[in-house]
Amino acid sequence: MIYTCTLNPAIDLFIETKHLKPEVVNRTNSYDIQPNGKGVNVSFILKQLGVDNTALGVGGGFTSEFIEKSLRDQGIKTDFTHIDGISRINVFTRVIETDTEYKEVNNGPIVSSKKLEDFLQKISQLKIGDKLVVSGSFSKGIDPEVIIKIAQMAQQQQFDLVIDTSYPEVKAAVKYRPFLLKPNNEELLSWFDKEDSNDLSTLVKYSKQLIQQGAKNILLSIGSKGALFVNQEQVIFGNAPKIKVVNTACSGDTMLGTFLAGMEQKLSLADNLQRSIAAASSTAATAGLTDFNDVKELMKQIKIEQLEG
User: Which BP terms from GO are recorded (predicted)?
Assistant: First the structure.
């Protein structure tokens, strides 16, 4: 079973308005409310591709209830650890007159040490054959060093750990042999105190260093350039198709969910990377997650190259 994990879930409120003026009532054109959180998005993508999964998380209040119900409505099992606080609401306002977007992202509620222990107790039940996907930021009260603790648990309990979070503590977790890391180029280079770059040779170099330190596989998103897959045996690269970008916020989650689904479905590595890049690009071209309707067409623009192995 694949378990996704969202330690700081959110409701995202998307607003479109003609103008945004101070100290007056601004009547909006439209709004949309979406459940969000990187693990939540991975769960939705997996389910769209026919892969059952269970969504774990830490949340509270009416916002968490909405997120969990949205998952269950799509046939996704949920097992959240509930807290006293209210899970966050983020606001994204698109102003037509100025073609400007305002992004207001909240920190989230405080999680007590007792509730964190309750969550880790759920992780302690995972076993060989399971996969746990830990994605996104952590709520206040959850120290980023928890990723090291979870990596230790994964090694001891022999489940596969997938990490998609930018905290520098990820590098300390690598020695516990996580199954897959999914950074982007900026995150990868920040772990080595290097400036951001999309130079392939540089990105391959530091990806291979993570492999040497213990990571089994690296799925590296490189924005409009495409993506790399790196492990002990090979390095492959796929370019990104040309699209009109609407919102890149969930494209990395889409890439990861699609790639994990492809692994479950026994796709070849080349076909899996190609579909994953196409799906991520489809999400970037829409306001929400892809519905996969245009993915086959986008795949025609993507060439997979074997760089090593």
Answer: carbohydrate catabolic process; D-tagatose 6-phosphate catabolic process; lactose metabolic process; small molecule metabolic process
User: For residue 206, what are the contacts with CB-CB under 8 A and spacing of at least 6?
Assistant: 188, 189, 191, 192, 194
The yes-or-no verdict on residue 309 having pLDDT over 90 is no
Other Cβ atoms within 10 Å of 92 Cβ, number:
19
Which one-letter amino acid corresponds to residue 185?
A: N
How does pLDDT run across 32-88, given as a tens digit for each residue? 999 999 999 999 999 999 999 999 999 999 999 999 999 999 999 999 999 999 999
Query: Averaged over 15-43, what is the pLDDT?
Result: 94
Backbone angle region of 18, left / alpha / beta, with phi > 0 → left and psi within -120 to 50 → alpha: alpha
- What digits encode the pLDDT tens for the residues 144-173? 999 999 999 999 999 999 999 999 999 999
Q: How many CB atoms lie within 10 A of CB 285?
A: 18
**Domain residue limits, the chain:** 2-308
Q: Which of 12, 130, 164, 253 is catalytic?
A: 253
Would you give the DSSP letter of residue 98? T
* CATH number of this structure's domain 2-308: 3.40.1190.20
Q: Is 118 noted as a catalytic residue in this protein?
A: no
Distance CA 192, CA 207 (A): 10
**How many whole angstroms separate alpha carbon 158 and alpha carbon 181?**
17
Strand 235-239 vs strand 304-308: parallel, antiparallel, or unpaired?
A: antiparallel
Q: Specify which residues 278 forms β-bridges with.
A: none
In the DSSP assignment, the letter for residue 278 is H
Question: 28-34, long-range: CB within 8 Å, 24+ apart, which pairs?
Answer: 29/96, 32/287, 32/288, 33/66, 34/288
